[in-house]
Design a protein that fits this description.
Layout lengths: L1 E5 L7 E5 L10 E11 L1 H8 L16 E7 L11 E4 L12 H4 L14 E5 L3 E3 L6 H4 L2 H14 L7 E5 L3 H12 L3 E6 L2 H9 L4 E4 L6 H8 L5 E6 L6 H7 E9 L12 H6 L3 E4 L5 H14 L5 E6 L3 H10 L5 E5 L3
Parallel strand pairs: 8-9, 8-11, 9-10, 11-12, 12-13, 14-15
Antiparallel strand pairs: 1-2, 3-4, 3-6, 3-15, 4-5, 5-7
């Protein structure tokens, strides 16, 4: 069977290889014919040498979805023919994280999705609703799960306000899922066109941070001086202090990325005196992904895909992720 490997931390290090096709899966295991996936910042970190502990060569791409084609003994979670999303944290099924559960990552320290047939733990997949295309399903595992876990952790509901930075995959899923929970959503972008698209998806307030550099003050103004119950920050760096300033007393800042850098001179006094919780995010459990998928199915939420690439254009998909500027997700169709 065909697979793609990444042999070094470089966008030029993708190689097509032939691997032995797996046979009948063992106890508690399944075989999944992989159909689609999507690119995340974690994949970019692997391909640029910035993911701690990443292995080379390895099968890249964390996100994936496919069809179950065989099940082993004692598999009760799924049956042959089921459509499933593959969770990226293969060992973290439910409950609180530990290093042993949260650190192993598909596409980085474990084999990822770019393979025709994957052998997996049956407990590490989530059944999909029929209305989603393969490409849409392939965008769910990291971004939808991360957004859902942040909303759950901050107990977001109808009386809540959520502030989202940018219009990448996690932010757009968070917008859709927060609106499904009845929350008010404020979103930022440097593009008026993207802000208009966010409004069409239900955003209540939009802020162009190129025109309004003090976007944190604008969040406070638009919340009557209170601030947001949850700020989802994929940027990090020095801007993390603005996220803290935009949160309400006792609010939460979900630090989900480091696009602006991994170091920041955090204003600790603001964190302490305003009792702001800065919550790091290194993924979530299979149960978290299942919650996100169930909420999407209940509200018929359709993932927003900026562009879809085939396998021959895999490098271009990574380059688009590196450039930024996309709206929603970058999907990969597994056109072997």
């Amino acid at each position: 069977m065909q697979s793609i490997q990444i042999t070094a931390p470089s966008f030029d290090a993708f190689r097509r290889v032939e691997l032995p096709e797996p046979t009948q899966p063992g106890k508690g295991r399944i075989l999944v014919r992989m159909k689609a996936g999507s690119v995340n910042f974690a994949d970019l970190a692997v391909a640029s040498g910035h993911y701690p502990g990443a292995l080379y060569p390895n099968i890249p791409l964390s996100d994936g979805a496919g069809e179950v084609i065989a099940v082993g003994e004692d598999v009760w979670q799924v049956a042959v023919g089921d459509r499933v999303a593959i969770h990226v944290k293969a060992h973290w099924i439910a409950g609180r994280p530990s290093a042993e559960l949260a650190n192993p990552m598909r596409g980085a320290t474990l084999p990822g999705s770019l393979v025709e047939i994957a052998e997996l733990d049956a407990a590490s997949v989530v059944k999909l609703p029929d209305y989603l295309s393969w490409e849409a399903a392939g965008t769910l595992p990291i971004a939808a799960m991360t957004a859902w876990r942040a909303l759950e952790s901050a107990q977001i509901g109808p009386a809540s306000t959520v502030a989202l930075l940018g219009t990448g995959g996690v932010s757009i899923f968070a917008l859709q899922l927060a609106k499904a929970r009845g929350a008010r959503v404020i979103i930022t972008s440097s593009s008026d066109e993207k802000l208009a698209r966010a409004r069409a998806l239900g955003a209540d307030e939009v802020i162009n941070y190129r025109q309004d550099a003090n976007w944190d003050a604008s969040v406070l103004e638009r919340t009557g001086g209170i601030g947001a119950d949850l700020v989802i920050d994929p940027v990090g760096g020095e801007g993390l202090n603005r996220s803290v300033a935009a949160a309400r007393h006792g609010g939460t800042v979900a630090a989900i990325g480091f696009l602006g850098g991994g170091a920041t001179p955090l204003d600790l006094l603001s964190v302490i005196f305003r009792e702001v919780r800065v919550q790091g995010s290194n993924g979530g459990s299979v149960a978290d992904l299942a919650g996100a998928v169930a909420a999407m199915a209940a509200h018929r939420i359709e993932p927003v895909i900026d562009r879809t690439f085939g396998l021959d254009d895999l490098k271009k998909a990574y380059e688009l992720m590196a450039q930024g500027g996309h709206f929603g997700k970058i999907a990969i169709s597994f056109d072997w």
